[in-house]
Amino acid sequence: QSQIAAAVKQIATKINSDYEGEKVLLVAVLNGAFIFVADLIRYLTIDCQIEFIKTQSYEGMHSTGKVKMLLGLNKDLQDQHVILLEDIVDTGNTLVALLEIFDKQKPKSLKVATLLLKSEALKHQNLPLDYVGIDIPNKFVVGYGLDYDGCGRQYADIYQVVL
Ligand code: 5GP
């Protein structure tokens, strides 16, 4: 819990310094990122707005390899500084699909903040992963917003699921 809090604060500090005097649109990816973004946004001192989108790529503990958009974006990203907020980047497939959609709207800048990164599992290079909280091993985890088939999101700590 303390390590998570430190990681969230460190991301917020970097965002505050990088965007000082700017207006930023945060786009959070539901469901998993809801606790991370709720904590993060309270450390932000910059002028910001937040929007939510919802994707699904996992069934149980396995990636389906396809990214389903369950709830889309209702906001125009053109000429805006956008930061995409993710709970976890695993293969990076979700991010690639989202960046492609977002890029089409010609934002002024587009960066990504993720609480967790499984760098060993990453299948894509040159992703704009400017803000990474904790690099974790390639294991399936739950807690702090992350679920296993809908359960476990409420844990204050993050646990590896062992079956
Ligand atoms: P990617 O597309 O990068 O492979 O996976 C991203 C999405 O898969 C995340 O936003 C999250 O929903 C889900 N995911 C990936 N790894 C984990 C994990 O270890 N635990 C949980 N609960 N979800 C994960």
Describe this structure in words.
- This protein has 163 residues and is α/β, with parallel strands linked by helices.
- The protein is built from three helices and eight strands.
- It has helices at residues 2-18, 34-41, 93-103, and strands at residues 23-30, 47-59, 62-71, 81-89, 109-117, 131-135, 141-142, 159-160.
- The chain has a six-stranded mixed β-sheet.
- Helix 3 links the parallel strand 4 and strand 5.
- It is globular and about 45 Å long.
- The chain starts with a helix and ends with a strand.
- Guanosine-5'-monophosphate is lined by residues 29, 32, 57-58, 63, 86-95, 140-142, 146-147.
- Guanosine-5'-monophosphate (5GP) binds next to strand 2, strand 4, helix 3 and strand 7.
Q: Roughly what is the average pLDDT, rounded to an integer?
A: 93
Spans of at least 5 consecutive residues with low confidence: none
- Based on CA atoms alone, the radius of gyration comes out at 15 Å
Total DSSP helices:
3
Which features does this protein show?
163 residues, two-stranded antiparallel sheet, 36% strand, globular, binds guanosine-5'-monophosphate
Concise account of the structure shown:
This protein has helices at residues 2-18, 34-41, 93-103; strands spanning 23-30, 47-59, 62-71, 81-89, 109-117, 131-135, 141-142, 159-160. It is an alpha/beta fold and 163 residues long. β4 (81-89), α3 (93-103) and β5 (109-117) form a beta-alpha-beta unit.
